[in-house]
Specification:
By secondary structure, the protein is of the alpha+beta class. It contains 3 helices and 9 strands; from the N terminus they run E-H-E-E-E-H-H-E-E-E-E-E. Strands 1, 2, 3, 5, 6, 7 and 9 form a 7-stranded mixed beta sheet that branches.
Length: 143
């Protein structure tokens, strides 16, 4: 796969991990969801030169400006196809800021895929905290 992947999932498909179905127990609410588009993607960093950390809200804003704002449907398609694809050594996680969830405390989070050395696993990361380096975004690339 190199640094490119092909995502193919129906844009009207329901979430595999629907946080709203847990709403009665956990209070999760869908705040926003990026429009799904299938196609080839490339990994890009979100830190600027000499930055060692950045707040999650700024990552989400940069993702929009960089046209690298995939959401949860993209994450689920990627995970279904590339669960064991090893990323480049400089990448520990991929953020998917296009889908934003809010818990009952009104804290907003996005899903990330974190590499554990053997496979990807899901994590929720709050937008109000600082994000560590070695993360990236997925951006559509021309064919």
């Amino acid at each position: 796969m190199g640094q490119n992947a092909v995502l193919a999932v129906s844009p009207d498909r329901s979430f595999v991990r629907d946080m709203t179905s847990l709403a009665m127990r956990c209070g999760w609410k869908l705040v926003s969801d990026a429009q799904y588009k299938a196609g080839k993607v490339e990994l890009i960093g979100f830190l600027r030169p000499r930055e060692i950390s950045v707040r999650g809200v700024e990552v989400a804003n940069r993702a929009i400006r960089l046209n690298a704002n995939p959401g949860q449907r993209h994450l689920e398609a990627f995970l279904a196809k590339y669960e064991r694809w090893a990323p480049p050594k400089c990448v520990d996680y991929i953020a998917f800021p296009g889908t934003v969830w809010q818990n009952e405390d009104r804290l907003r989070s996005v899903l990330t895929l974190c590499w554990n050395g053997e496979r990807w696993h899901l994590d929720l990361v709050r937008l109000d905290g600082g994000w560590r380096p070695r993360g990236c975004l997925l951006r559509p690339c021309s064919e």
